[in-house]
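Step 1: inspect the first sequence and its tokens.
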Amino acid sequence: MFDITGSIVLYKNSPALVKKAIASFLNTKLNVRLYLIDHSPNEDLKFLGEDDRIEYIANPLNPGFGAGHNVAIHKVAEKSKFHAVINPDIYYNEAVIEPIIDFFEQYPRIGTVMPKILYPDGRTQYLAKLLPTPLDFIVRRFIPFDFIRNKIDNRFELRKSGYNRSFNVPFLSGCFIIFRTSALLKIGAFDENIFMYTEDIDICRRIIDLGYRCMFFPSVSVYHDHERKSFVDFKIFKIYLKSAIYYFNKWGWFFDRGREKINHDTLKQFSTLKGAY
């Protein structure tokens, strides 16, 4: 039985970057297992799986981000109580996993946890969010006016919370997120109809529907060497758009009572803050 397992989906990534992600996860006294799911057209990154605690799995068919992680999730099944989904551009210097596991153990209804995510220069990435509306997607992608985008972002990304305390939130970024494995198995893991981008919103929502909590946990932090490729690469943008359309077709566009209630309950946590939403 592993204390925790993890998976990283690869696609023609920089080996130096992936090495940092691997070293971060393996730098622990816990009994861990890491799966490298390589969707690259070749196996140039296979050498990264030489550690005994790593299993390298090549799949050049590239079925998508969630489908790749599902390979690892179904492998661990009853072998691990917790499973970490990790981007290849994540790294950290201090113990991160142990405090998160302790947090899980204190609260059995927590289904998933995300720590504070930082840019390499130490700035906060605002990745604990409300469930999006179609307007959120449109404004944040297409509207060129900063004052409009900032107003949307302040609410959608819960910036007035200060990002300095734990809170229950319906949308945690899939760049680094740890799940209670039993909750993952109950919902059937990631929706493989989503190739990339909204799979993290979808999986958090399904976990919430089972009565679990999705928690932002800023007591520990990781670095995310993030590039917003969907904003500069038209091919990636088409994937982003297709993903968004699928998500709203599944959960509802402008009439989604579940979204309204979940977002309302989330914002109530901050109702006593000055300048609340």
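Step 2: inspect the second sequence and its tokens, then contrast the two.
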Amino acid sequence: MNAVEEFRAEVRDWLAANLSGDFAGLRGRGGPGREHECFAQRLAWERHMAAAGWTCVGWPKEHGGRGATIEEQVAFHEEYALANAPARVGHIGEQLLGPTLVALGTPAQQRRFLPAIVAARELWCQGYSEPDAGSDLAGVRTRAERDGDEWVITGQKIWTSLAHEADWCFVVARTEPGATRHQGLSYLLVPMDQPGVEVRPITQLTGTCEFNEVFFDAARTHASHVVGVPGEGWQVAMATLGFERGVSTLGQQVGFRRELETLIDLAVRNGAADDPLIRDRLARAWVGVETIRFNALRMLDGVAAGAPGPEASIGKIFWSTWHRELGELAMDVCGAGGMLAAGEPYELDDWQRLFLFSRADTIYAGSNEIQRNIIAERVLGLPKEPRP
């Protein structure tokens, strides 16, 4: 057994031994469209993992991680998904902000923020999208002005996942008056529990509220809480987006495969698989999930080099479209019964929730339209889309 296989076995054995007792009921809980499920218990699970050294496994050891190789990180995320372990509550801090601070933060920022992420003491949210900017991050209007030893932030963010649970938010704001597009932006670390920060949940088609609007009305953060050079936050923001397309996507596709296998079982049991068109769509879905995996493996070369390449945008378009189509296929497999709520007043089953929430897959984390622009302009060298 080589080192990666030994590591994989260690992860598998630990999960088998610890997803028991009070934590046994957390299997399969949480995730997109279901972040409201057992949140307090999942946070307790995260802290249990932290105490055993199973958070931030890919971070350098000097910052509290295990220093796991890319191959070991893949093994961890795959085994975590195969165990049907609960969705992580600290993934925004662990997968996005933490690696950004490891790469670009000051030693003081690393000492202040990284240990709390490792220990799951502080949770983070991402302040990027705005109502008038859509997926155009360079169009943000939230502004921050220097006032002595503090930044004063005013503006609005939207579609902010888990803002209602977060202790901190990393915010892209315009800090140079008159600057436009990519210039004059700064990447600020802002505490959420303070006057001047208001969080308003957004109710989605599923009836849940994991997305939020966040209003900053002269909210404050210390002057030292800017990552990178003030006014040059675009590069930092792009680095964070690169880390978002990391090795955890290998765990995501394990979940996709489980959904597909469960749907195939349903189609066989209820007779939907007797329809040759349904059989063809199920077969195409199986080919699709294999493609998702192989593209994710291809992307690891870029991750190992420091940032994913164009495969990240290709993969985002493919998996989000595939997952949305799986939701549509699930409704056809369920038949007319899929149109009825399971209970009052609006209780959805897993397939209905998949169908409704997967409509958002092609929008969040960079819409498919934006991803196609990135591929066209930055990879293929095609003319840029006209802008006013």
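Step 3: confirm your contrast with the notes below.
The chain is about 45% helix and 15% strand. The two ends are 59 Å apart (CA to CA).
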